[in-house]
Design goal:
It is a single chain. The protein has a twelve-stranded mixed sheet, with helices on one face. The longest helix has 14 residues. The protein has 323 residues and is an alpha/beta fold. Helix 1 crosses helix 9, helix 2 runs parallel beside helix 3 and helix 3 packs parallel to helix 5. It has one domain: Aldolase class I (TIM Barrel), CATH 3.20.20.70. The protein binds guanosine-5'-triphosphate, S-adenosylmethionine (SAM) and iron/sulfur cluster (2 copies). The site of guanosine-5'-triphosphate (GTP) has 17 residues, from strand 2, strand 3 and strand 5.
Length: 323
């Protein structure tokens, strides 16, 4: 279905948990984040009902996210049921990779052929600092396993001045031998940490740095690029992508809505508005559920204003929505 600005909405980002086994400094404040009680989190059958309703409006791709989606029990069985829903053409998952070595095989068998893995440093100490205690070795083992089972891999790194900016070239170099898509994401000030302006490295600056060291060839964006502008280092097996939600937002081609693990449907990541789907999840309420999702799509804003007017968005943790 089209929204009121003529954008076709065919992609649902579904967060299945707000819990996470990491505490990334750009995603969560150091303290004050408490997980929701289990009773407040949608059951899998309720999530399936929402996705089934969304398919009647043209949703064809579902990305499972979180919190960390792999910490939720029963995730594989849920994915199998999701893959069996009529109308769903693609299921993807975004993960921090900590539990990936255990799950890669089952994920692939359940229908997840594409994986986005968040990895913000290739140095164990820096990785541990960014994630507040995470073990880089586990993520690398997870990536190795995902590769072995045949998954298509995208690596997401949030570029942050003074944190991992000295590693950007190392990340780019990964794409030379590996058929991965390595994506550089502009930091978004969602938790409004102090001096967030200082953290942001613009996509243009990232590109300028990469161009100084490599011959980058722009590629034509295809349906698998999502919000990233794609490039390839001459002769490389993989690609690079620049995602610029702040300096050059991609809202004009936005194709997505979101549903949080608490059943809040959001038309835009940065919008404070949400529609509570929980009262509409009864077996006989599918038409009401569809109407509510229609309303969400129709109410989608033209673009976010986080760069020009940070106060237009109340601070939030991406883990509560799914990024
Ligand atoms: N502002 C904004 N940022 C987004 C949006 N979707 C994803 N992002 C950010 O882009 C980064 C990559 O997100 P992913 O979960 O890998 O999803 P994606 O890039 O849409 O994935 P593909 O389906 O592979 O294109 C994360 O930092 C997200 O928070 C969006 O709609 N708006
Ligand atoms: C909220 S996480 C959920 C999935 C999983 N836990 C993970 O980290 O991949 C989804 C995405 O949001 C991104 N993200 C979180 N906070 C961000 C921020 N402030 N700026 C840019 N991206 C952010 C993460 O890097 C990750 O790629
Ligand atoms: S970015 Fe992902 S892994 Fe990091 S704290 Fe947020 S939800 Fe957890
Ligand atoms: S900020 Fe909102 S409108 Fe812009 S791309 Fe993200 S979800 Fe879409």
């Amino acid at each position: 279905m089209q929204d009121s600005f003529g954008r076709t909405i065919n992609y649902l980002r579904l967060s299945i948990t707000d819990r996470c086994n990491l505490r990334c400094l750009y995603c969560m404040p150091a303290t004050g984040i408490t997980s929701q009680h289990h009773d407040n989190i949608l059951r899998y059958d309720e999530m399936l009902r929402i996705v089934a309703a969304a398919t009647t409006l043209g949703i064809r791709k579902v990305r499972i996210t979180g919190g960390e989606p792999l910490v939720r029990k029963g995730v594989i069985g849920f994915l199998e049921q999701l893959a069996a829903l009529e109308g769903i053409e693609e299921i993807a998952l975004t993960t921090n990779g900590i539990l990936l070595a255990d799950y890669a095989e089952e994920l692939y068998a359940a229908g997840v052929k594409r994986l986005n893995i968040s990895l913000d440093s290739l140095k164990p100490d820096t990785f541990s600092d960014i994630t507040r205690g995470g073990d880089l070795g586990r993520v690398l083992a997870g990536i190795g396993k995902a590769e072995q089972v045949g998954m298509k891999i995208k690596l997401n790194l949030v570029a942050m001045r003074g944190v991992n900016d000295h590693e950007l070239l190392d990340f780019a170099a990964l794409s030379i031998d590996k058929p991965w898509s390595v994506r550089f994401i502009e930091y978004m000030p969602t938790i409004r940490e102090q001096q967030w302006q200082h953290r942001i490295i613009s996509g243009a600056d990232i590109l300028a740095l990469l161009n100084q060291h490599y011959q980058l060839n722009p590629l034509t964006a295809d349906r698998f690029c999502g919000p990233a502008r794609p490039y390839r280092i001459a002769g490389a097996a993989g690609t690079l992508g620049i995602i610029t939600p702040m300096s050059e937002h991609f809202c004009g081609s936005c194709n997505r809505i979101r549903v949080t693990s608490m059943g809040q449907a959001k038309s835009c990541l940065m919008s404070n508005d949400a529609v509570d789907l929980r009262p509409l999840l009864g077996v006989r309420q599918q038409s009401k559920l569809i109407d509510a999702l229609k309303m969400v799509i129709c109410g989608k804003p033209e673009h976010h204003c986080l760069g020009s007017d940070p106060d237009s968005t109340t601070p939030f943790s991406m883990a509560s929505i799914g990024g």
